[in-house]
Amino acid sequence: MGQTYYLKTPLRDEDVKKLRAGDIVFLNGVVYTARDAAHKRLVDLISAGEKLPFDLNGAVVYFVGPTPPKPGEPIGSAGPTTSYRMDSYSPTLISHGLRGMIGKGERSREVIDSCMKYGAVYFGATGGAGALLGKKIKSSEIIAYPELGPEAIRRIEVEDFPVTVINDVLGDDLYQRGRAEYEIK
Fold first, then answer.
1. For site-directed labelling of 1, which of 26, 52, 94, 152 has its Cα 20 to 30 A away?
2. What are the structural domains of the chain?
3. Verdict on whether the full-model pTM lies above 0.70
């Protein structure tokens, strides 16, 4: 079991560098939502030298397509999306300042290498707990690509949003470490 941290976004380099695979983190502040369609558009904007809809420096992106909110609530169920669909886009975003990603499932070697090179982390959120995770989101506003529906980019404010460090800046992988502990020798 790792350490427990309460961190505010945007993430600072010194915060990211101290995190290790297995640490528990409670995030507070602004997080942006984006899935594969939005990631493609962000990378296309970078390639074209155009302005992005939010500042990537220190940003955390949550791979989620939330459900519509119930009356009086800022967001509906907000469970993590499988992350490998963002693997072809994440290295570009990391190289331009993205410091945290939240999702579920393993990441490619290229993403892990980018985390090591530029100082970023991949956080896992608990799949199947979308309704509970949605309760940690205090506000939600679509800031780009409303035509994408649930995949639009949102600016959400989170309070004590629980995540686990899966991949850290040293290249450690909690999934691989966990598997190794239970493999038959």
1. 94
2. 4-182 (3.20.130.10)
3. yes
